[in-house]
Recover the amino acids of this structure.
């Protein structure tokens, strides 16, 4: 297991139509480090975004897709996606405000 600091856990927010609709229920979607645990993701969100309280963290491991260029086959990189649910009394996350 990698020694991850809280600022290494969250890679970037994931902005899709489905994730934007889930923000009404205080659910935010992020791409996270593949070795990150749910507790590390919870800690990273609470430290990076002031005033947030995490209620639940759901994670998904996304395997790399097989791609082909000519006769050569390869795979894209593995990814991990996390859906973070905040409590009702928690502040919203600012980076999603203007979207």
């Amino acid at each position: 297991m990698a020694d991850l600091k809280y600022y290494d856990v969250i890679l970037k927010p994931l902005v899709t139509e489905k994730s934007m609709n889930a923000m009404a229920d205080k659910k935010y979607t992020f791409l996270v480090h593949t070795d990150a645990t749910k507790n590390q993701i919870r800690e990273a969100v609470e430290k990076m975004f002031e005033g947030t309280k995490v209620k639940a963290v759901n994670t998904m491991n996304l395997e790399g897709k097989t791609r082909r260029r000519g006769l050569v086959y390869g795979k894209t990189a593995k990814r991990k996606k996390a859906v973070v649910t905040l409590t009702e009394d928690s502040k919203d996350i600012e980076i999603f405000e203007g979207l």
About this structure: Strands lie at 10-13, 27-32, 54-62, 66-69, 72-75, 79-86.
